[in-house]
From TrEMBL:
One of its GO terms (biological process) is negative regulation of canonical Wnt signaling pathway. GO terms for cellular component: plasma membrane. It comes from the Eukaryota. InterPro entries: Cys-rich_flank_reg_C (IPR000483), Leu-rich_rpt (IPR001611), Leu-rich_rpt_typical-subtyp (IPR003591), LRR_dom_sf (IPR032675), LRRNT (IPR000372), Wnt_signaling_inhibitor (IPR052286). Residues 236-288 form the LRRCT domain. Keywords: Leucine-rich repeat, Membrane, Repeat, Signal, Transmembrane, Transmembrane helix. This is Trophoblast glycoprotein a. The chain crosses the membrane at residues 302-322. The lineage of its organism: Eukaryota, Metazoa, Chordata, Craniata, Vertebrata. Residues 19-53 form the LRRNT domain. Residues 1-19 form the signal peptide.
Length: 366
């Protein structure tokens, strides 16, 4: 009887092996299937139904569609990194009713359909899209997908290393349950209004290794939209000019929130390179002193100009005083000349207006 049982076990062993797709390694005990670096062009068929952890990485799969994972209801962890995936169709993962972690890192996503990440029952908790977007323009497709895929239960989103230049307004507003947001190693130049709208439960925000030169009023307001989040702001090219004063004041008041606050330094101008932003406030006060000096110099110029004009005016009056007699004589001469001219015009007018005087004038001329 014992031999018969052993025989059955031996017969079952090859069957279990044959249930594993070619190019994959399956472990029923660990409920894990790995299809790693086998040049696969499609998600292999026949993956065992017991699979909870599925790793299909380092292959040449270009597209994922709704039928790619049919029958895999038990999968909770799915890694599809480094597969050259360029398109993810809507409802690709809809058959994965228990999916909690999805890794699409190191792919080339150029076309992301509106409901690409839709998973039933708000089960998806972690989504890794680091180094996954084909270029920074793919962020618009991503924003639409995040809005339409019903990811209110998502807790961790990794978008690091995607060369993102900007983030559309309210891109994360439908991820109300998000706790951790990774935006490191991009090219983000500024944070605008409503960038982090709807992320009231965020606990960690990583903005390190970007192109942030300054946080203006809008950017600081966005950081205040996530008051409970620990912030990573290091390795950005901060420009320590007078406009950075509100940011340095905010940093000094928010040291507990900024994890790497001690490592935040100025990159520009060159003479302030590697100066701590925490100490930049005193340097910014120097900007104010410079401004006051400029105003003082301008006021001094106005005073000097007034003095010069006053001196010129006094000199003019002094010259008039010294030549008062000659000026008076000239005035009298001009008055007499004007009077003579006026009397001549008046006399001529009387002659022309009276015919008798005109006749007398003519006779006198004869």
């Amino acid at each position: 009887m014992l031999r018969f049982g052993v025989l059955l076990l031996l017969l079952a062993q090859p069957a279990r092996c044959s249930a594993c797709p070619p190019g994959c390694a399956c472990s029923e005990a660990a409920q894990t299937v790995k299809c790693v670096s086998k040049e696969l062009r499609f998600v292999p068929a026949g993956i065992p139904a017991y699979t909870r952890n599925l790793f299909i990485t380092g292959n040449r799969i270009s597209r994922l569609g709704p039928g790619s994972f049919a029958g895999l209801d038990n999968v909770t962890t799915l890694s599809l990194s480094n597969n050259r995936i360029s398109e993810v169709a809507s409802h690709t993962f809809s058959s994965l009713h228990n999916l909690r972690s999805l890794d699409l890192s190191s792919n080339q996503l150029a076309l992301i359909h509106p409901e690409a990440f839709a998973v039933p029952g708000l089960m998806l908790k972690e989504l890794n899209l680091s180094r996954a977007l084909y270029n920074h323009s793919s962020v618009m497709d991503l924003a639409t997908s995040l809005r339409w895929s019903g990811l209110e239960g998502l807790q961790s989103l990794d978008l690091s290393g995607n060369g993102l230049i900007y983030l559309p307004p309210r891109i994360f507003s439908h991820l109300s349950g998000l706790r951790r947001l990774q935006l490191a190693n991009n090219s983000i130049v500024s944070i605008y209004n409503e960038t982090f709208s709807g992320l009231g439960q965020l606990e960690e925000l990583d903005l390190s290794l970007n192109a942030l030169k300054i946080f203006g009023d809008e950017g600081l307001a966005e950081l205040e939209h996530v008051p409970g989040a620990k912030l990573h702001l290091g390795d950005n090219p901060y420009m320590c000019t007078c406009g950075i004063e509100p940011f340095t004041a905010w940093l000094n008041a928010s040291r507990v929130r900024v994890v790497d606050v001690e490592r935040l330094v100025c990159l520009f101008p060159v003479e302030l390179r590697n100066t701590s932003l925490l100490a930049a406030g005193s340097l910014v006060l120097g900007c104010h002193r410079t401004g006051e000096g400029d105003n003082l110099a301008l006021q001094t110029s106005y005073v000097f100009l007034g003095i010069v004009l006053g001196f010129v005016g006094l000199m003019f009056l002094f010259v008039l005083y010294l030549n008062r007699k000659g000026i008076k004589k000239r005035v009298y001469d001009m008055r007499d000349a004007c009077r003579e001219v006026w009397e001549g015009y008046h006399y001529r007018y009387e002659i022309d207006s009276d015919p008798r005087l005109s006749q007398v004038s003519t006779t006198a001329d004869v």
